Amino acid sequence: MLAACRGAPRVALDAERLQRMVDSLRPQVQTAAGLEFRGPVRSAVTSREAVRAFLEEKVRKDFPPERLEGLQAAYQLLGFLPDTLDLQALLLDLYTEQVAGYYDPETSTLYAVRGGDPSQLRLILAHELVHALQHQYLPLDSLMVVRDDADRLAAIQAVLEGHATIASIRVLTPGQDVLAEPGFWDTYREQVRAQQVRMEVFRTAPLVLREGLVFPYLDGARFVHWWTQTHEAALPSTPELPVSTEQVLHTERYAAGDGPVALRFTDAQNDGLYEDTIGELEIAVLLAIFRGADQASWDAPLGWGGDRYRVYRTPDGPALVWYVVWDGTQFADRFAGVAGPGFGARARIGYRVSTEVLTLDSLPVVRVVHAPAGWAGWRALPKIESRGVR
């Protein structure tokens, strides 16, 4: 939702001083990011209270009531969130805790929060300056409002945050190639996770939110580092952006052009509340939840080939139908073998769970249904069709 940087600055700051810092960082950021500024960057000092008000408006805009209701119902039925959680309030608290500076594509302005450590502020400004620079090459305002494909949006955000992360590291370590040092990525992952668990809201948030917040800064950075080593460009163009978190997590999938199958439901949406994608990243989180693990693992591709879910309104509560395409029968069977018992153990009272392996255009598909036992849809479950490879 927001290109935010980690940390909590605590230094007196005014508009003039901020602009001087921004201007002094421009040459270093330009070199580290591998792109030249095409124009000036506006900056402004803001307060913590103003940031929260900005975030409240962003949450309201990005999660209107019906979308928020559908998303929360889906993630509760999938087992990502407890039924008692207020998703909107938690997202607002999480973003407020995380943000110490940000670039807003809508106003083309870099904002720094008043009060903080100068060394932290330098890191934040370097990171957010990269986002301002990216906006001069990519349509950030439209890219970051992709609807009905959360997995693709997460992949795009990972590239943007990964690029900014790498550039800010280079700004702070001039003349050193720390990214090439043996063990750097493992050490960096440990440092980021250690920093995040010191944040109270983050530490107590559900696993799917924790992994989703860390993913762009860790795995997005690794993807961009790979990109710069294999392509003659500092940043993918809009058509070159990855289309799934699978492609970010497993660059060989990106290199092979292995895009997911695009799916759509064939029934009318008369009682449909919300639909979207899950993707490789969050399926890995779901499998970790089923295992009782406190971190997800994606050392090897899961064999994911695309997915789509829809939440329906029913008199007895929301119903979820989720289809997941797999690259082979072995992957579908393995997922069904874990997901079946996993969902079954978490079925709501008065609900039924069904996990079946089906076929769509010769590809194996797992269909998961978690719905009230009396739902009329059980008599003729919604179907999907393929729209080709995305």
Descriptive account of the structure:
- 48% of the residues lie in helices and 17% in strands.
- The chain is an alpha+beta fold and 390 residues long.
- The protein has two domains: 15-242, no CATH class; 258-389, no CATH class.
- Mean pLDDT is 91; it is low at 1-10.
Brief summary:
With 390 residues, the chain is an alpha+beta fold. It is built from 14 helices and ten strands. The protein folds into two domains: 15-242, no CATH class; 258-389, no CATH class.
Features:
single chain; 390 residues; alpha+beta; 2 domains; five-stranded antiparallel sheet; 14 helices; 48% helix; globular; disordered N terminus
The total number of structural domains is 2
Helix content: 40-55%
Number of strands: 10
Q: Could you state the order of secondary-structure elements as H and E?
A: HEHHHEEHHHHHHHHEEHEEHEEE
Runs with pLDDT <50, length 5+?
1-10
Gross morphology: globular
- Biggest pleated-sheet summary: 5 strands, antiparallel
Which class of secondary structure composition applies to the elements?
alpha+beta
Content of β-strand: 15-25%
| Count of individual helical segments | 14
Q: For the largest sheet, list the strands in their spatial order.
A: 5-6-7-9-8
The whole-number mean of residue pLDDT values reads 91
Over all CA atoms, what is the radius of gyration? 22 Å
How many angstroms separate the termini?
23 Å
